[in-house]
């Protein structure tokens, strides 16, 4: 599976982000993948092509800075953080 996930430090942050992103991007709630250890356990999955737009939309969400990270999941299950450029 080649996709990206946003992981969160709290369930509250995950729920706010889902509400903020739904309708703008094709996000799906999922359990946090095992390859990503630090998280509240809930993640949002989305296509890799939307990573820049999702990051920009998350930056707009007040009060959530530092509460989330974006990872790209490779087909082999490895997770690599997507660092802003």
TrEMBL record:
Pfam families associated with the record: Se_S_carrier (PF11823)
Domain Putative Se/S carrier protein-like, first and last residues per copy: 4-60
Name the UniProt record assigns to this protein: DUF3343 domain-containing protein
Organism in which the protein naturally occurs: Anaerotruncus massiliensis
């Amino acid at each position: 599976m080649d996709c990206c996930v946003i992981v969160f430090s709290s369930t509250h942050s995950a729920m706010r982000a889902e509400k903020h992103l739904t309708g703008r991007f094709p996000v799906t709630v999922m359990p946090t993948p095992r390859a990503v250890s630090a998280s509240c356990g809930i993640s949002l999955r989305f296509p890799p092509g939307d990573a820049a737009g999702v990051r920009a939309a998350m930056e707009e969400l007040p009060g959530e800075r530092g509460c989330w990270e974006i990872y790209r999941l490779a087909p082999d299950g490895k997770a690599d953080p997507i660092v802003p450029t």
